Amino acid sequence: MINNNNKLDSIPSQRTASNPQTKKIASALAFASCGLFASNGHATELVKNVDDWKVDAALMYYGEQDRVQAIEAIGKAQKNFGDDSVLDLKLVVDSLTGASASGAVAQSDSQTFTRPSGNGQYKVAAGDTPLDDTFHDTRVQGSANWSQKLNPDWKVSGGVYGSKEFDYMSMGINAGVERGFNKDNTTLFLGTAYSFDVVDPVGGRPVALSSMAIRDNFTSDEAYRTAFDATRQNGSDDKQTVDLMLGITQILNQRWLLQANYGLSSVSGYLTDPYKVLSVVDNNGTSQDIVYENRPDSRLKHSFYVMTKGALDSGVVDFSYRYNTDDWDLTSHTLETHYRYYFSGSFYGQLHLRYYQQSAVNFYQPFLLADTPLPEFASADYRIGDMSAYTIGVKFGHRLSGGHEMTYRLEYYQQDPKNNGTELPGQLQNYDLFPTQKAITAQFSYSF
Amino acid sequence: MRKLFLFLSLLSTGVFAAPSLDHQVFDSQNQSVSLSEFKGKVVYVDFWASWCGPCRKSFPWMNAMQQKYRDQGLAVVAINLDTDKALAEEFLKQMPAQFSVRFNPEGDVARSFDLLGMPSSFVFNRQGQLVKNHVGFYQDNAADYEQELVSLLKE
Amino acid sequence: MRKITLIAVSLIVVGLTGCTNLGVQPWEKGQLARSDMALDSEKLDQALDDHIYFSKEGSSGGRAFAGGGCGCN
């Protein structure tokens, strides 16, 4: 699968080419530096032969401080067939271990929780944020996409996708159509996708807002088991998603383009996180009970996305803004930018900045109060609460001979959950109920 | 006199604002030359650039056509539209052309031909009249392109 | 929500009609044809990022891969 007949990998720059002296020095340097890297230049590049397989592979480590650790391997292969068709294949394998916040609040005494399976329990020390440490899973995901040019103006595409992990299965199909206007300076895109997911949680799906049965509160295993089973529903449940996307890409001038998308997503079925709970506390903030969360069984989401990207003499830059809103009343704003600078024709550095801010869904509550009736829906999952987050990342890339490319990426991601205005009773004031979460990702990629 | 001048200038814009062989381009020595030097032959005018994928695919085909039909009076003329000639030369080093290559870095000739995409090709008969044009280069249609040339060469 | 959809669609229509004056000639797309200018030039990074944010945040999606690039053929 090596691009053996791809000889067009040197990318002479306009700048160096316009100065013969500089060019001479540059090529001498390139020659001296063992010729492993393609020689000089960056800006405009010569077209490459695209008929062979093009493969991208990446290995990523994701690690949260004291929580989830994940390894993800991803491989993508692309091949052009004739002048008009492109096949894309993708395979992803990831493995996850570690603890994640259960949704319960920290307490002045140690707390005991039942594991999701019902087999065994775990203790959380006084003052600690309760984490469910039984989290480990392996996921395999594969997808195939075909895109076909019908004539100079129209392009259609279609794809299938499937993923499987221990307690979750997802299958999907998608289709899209693209039309160029105005000498291909304007492209309109209409796409749709449907996915069908099956949720089969470890230990079964909890009964909405039922109390967690804890072995210590029962005299016999049988009595405990009966109580635990009463908190569970039999069988699996499913979730269906229909996505619609309308997009426009506009070339603004010789160096800048603009993309704008509107996306509509309708999700229905089992949307609750079966592993998340809420603490029920009294007026002193002391936990009386732990109940399993419950979310509505449908969600309608809108997204607006605008991105502009520019070709610089010795780099590339993009800026994007995304606005999301849905009928759970969650709204979010995302600002993101990438800036790439070519130190030479074969080596670049890139900076990535991202800022994210969301407001809580209308049924988010950091805990429930014992003296108020149970609501229909409730979740203490910080991921759908008030939160801001930012990412700062760097990436370095080497363009090697033969069209190969090697990149390294390091990113820091911090989430700052916030109180959505809930008054904290008694002892809860002593604890950080909205702890900051920090994560690092490290990634190595190779393309050939 | 002024009317005549106006008439002539109108006429000339009329001539130059359409695909024809009455256009000035540069040769590899940066000398301004006219496309009319190929008049009397069947002329396949191709517009290309170093960064364009289908253009690269069209080069071997244009080489083959030029070789096969030179004696019957075919002239393949590929006009490069790179703003930086060095890129075109780099491309030609890796993909040598056995046909006439001309340069129009200003793009004014391309504008007159009103290109809709890259590459674009225009076929002129022996009388210098535009007979056919194509947007893009599709390997699947190469036999059709050749057939058009053959029938014009027979005229 | 229907109102939002309506606004979005009319924005795109207005944008599209305004767009006919924008753009460049086919032979002026050399910079836009650069591989690093493709909208999916960092598809793997985007897929990995999207997966992280999808599982850690309350909203997702918005980006799609369409258009852009060289515009050849």
From TrEMBL, chain A:
It comes from the Bacteria. InterPro entries: DUF3570. This is DUF3570 domain-containing protein. It comes from Shewanella decolorationis S12.
Automatic annotation (TrEMBL), chain B:
SUPFAM superfamilies: Thioredoxin-like. The keyword Signal applies. Residues 7-154 form the Thioredoxin domain. Gene3D superfamilies: Glutaredoxin. Pfam families: Redoxin. Residues 1-17 form the signal peptide. It comes from the Bacteria. The keyword Signal applies. Keywords: Signal. This is Redoxin domain-containing protein. It comes from Shewanella decolorationis S12. The lineage of its organism: Bacteria, Pseudomonadati, Pseudomonadota, Gammaproteobacteria, Alteromonadales.
Automatic annotation (TrEMBL), chain C:
It holds the Pfam family DUF4266. It comes from the Bacteria. It comes from Shewanella decolorationis S12. Keywords: Lipoprotein. This is Lipoprotein. Residues 24-73 form the DUF4266 domain.
